[in-house]
TrEMBL record:
GO terms for biological process: L-histidine biosynthetic process. One of its GO terms (molecular function) is histidinol-phosphate transaminase activity. This is Histidinol-phosphate aminotransferase. Pathway: Amino-acid biosynthesis; L-histidine biosynthesis; L-histidine from 5-phospho-alpha-D-ribose 1-diphosphate: step 7/9. Residues 29-357 form the Aminotransferase class I/classII large domain. Coiled coil: none annotated. The keyword Amino-acid biosynthesis applies. The modification N6-(pyridoxal phosphate)lysine is found at residue 220. It is an enzyme of class 2 (transferase). Its cofactor is pyridoxal 5'-phosphate.
Amino acid sequence: MTKPTPRSTVLVIDAYVPGRSAAPGAARVFKLSANETPLGPSPRAVEALRGMADHIALYPEGSSRALREAIGARYALNPDRIIAGAGSDNLLELLALAYIGPGDEAVYSQHGFLEYKIVTLAAGGTPVVAPETNYTAEVDALLACVSERTKIVFLANPNNPTGTFLPANEVARLARSLPSHVLLVLDAAYAEYVLREDYEAGVALVDAHENVVMTRTFSKIYGLAGLRVGWAYGPAHVIDALNRIRSPFNVSSVGSAAAIAALSDRAHLDAAIAHNDRWLPWLSREISALGLDVLPSVANFVAIRFPDAPGLTAVDADRFLMSRGLVLRAIGAYGMGEFLRLTVGAQEANERVVEALAEFMQSARAPQDAQAGVHG
Ligand SMILES: *Cc1c(COP(=O)(O)O)cnc(C)c1O
């Protein structure tokens, strides 16, 4: 008996595994596994959301015009060259679907965001993985992977789950060096968190090239992950292609309204930036001081490397933290099994993580030291 069979590249996909939200048995749970903002959304967004309650029987305006205009006004961009989507994942998917087919390749870096692999395979294409150096994407390595068959180069900047980034001059060199038939997708999901002078989310490169597109999201610093709203800014011909294949009402009326309200709340955004600017360096410093390696991050999370020693591994640490209700993200699927990714949380969560890690390092070391006769 035959049954319907998906295309050959579909069943080789490992479905994306979201960050866990439960810690069975723990009295209180601190979810630090999905890079959500501890400040939550702007109260204005929540109010706008409530205001939509009486209108949800109606379809949204299909092109998300009001949202695109609000984004355009906020970031000084032409709304005609913006497309909105159900999260930026939706836009990554549309980009793959529009540009990649069987026999085509998409390039991304070794520890790059896993969604690139998923959307490439889903479109029937072949993923090509460029090596990284020090958990950071490398322009020359990406370029070396580009061939006649390459349709897209995906670059998360900063990258999830590493937190590392490429400076503007390097991304510009990548854009300049790519053959004109290759689309460069700059995924700037964490752009608002990056406070470095040498960082650029991608607007200037989109404006300078016909083959660069930037994706953004309301899921991270804006705190609207549950509503699924993202957008992309690109050359008119790319936006046109995506508009032809997106579903007709791909952003909900409620999501649009909340996102528009969120954009108007500069104070809330600034508070989220300031919170991260305080706690990201604090966490990096405190955790490093415990003898753990912390990758240098410019986003709202850090990747922590655990020793390859019995009782001290990332798996051990994960178990220990979970028992205290601290839910981090295991990132073995990214080839980083010796790491856990920690989202910057509220003050209490951050302090608990550092305390718990200190305790973990102590308790895990003690029996080993005893075995090794360190304590005589
Ligand atoms: C979280 C994240 C996204 C966005 O997700 P959406 O919720 O679909 O907007 C995109 N890229 C990276 C690198 C992310 O970490």
